[in-house]
Design brief:
The chain is 35% helix and 27% strand. By secondary structure, it is an alpha+beta fold.
């Protein structure tokens, strides 16, 4: 599944309340989140980076060795089998990436 497929299915109204329960300091940005999602849904996809996927990893113990419970998203280069920095890639490329889960 492409990241674009997830974005297209995503309904901000369905998770908005829970999101702001977890991140109350972001509550004043509700309209901005709505606009970001709208913009992402309208962007074209770029599938040129076929060897790089978005890898979602469930973290249960962080670097401090303390219990944790969150998900980390990173790029993963399938050819080199190593993590890949995606912070400076365009949203169009992110949207065109396949999403994989690592348990």
């Amino acid at each position: 599944m492409l990241f674009k497929d997830i974005v297209d299915k995503f309904d901000w109204a369905l998770i908005e309340k829970r999101f702001f329960e977890i991140y109350p300091d972001m509550n004043h940005n509700s309209e901005k989140f709505t606009n970001v999602l709208k913009t992402l849904k309208e962007l074209p996809i770029d599938t040129a980076e076929e060897d790089i996927v978005l890898l979602i990893v469930h973290i249960t113990e962080d670097y401090t060795k303390k219990p944790a419970d969150y998900h980390e998203v990173t790029g993963f280069n399938l050819d080199k089998e190593e993590n890949f920095g995606i912070a400076f890639m365009s949203w169009e490329k992110w949207l065109g990436m396949d999403v994989r889960h690592k348990h």
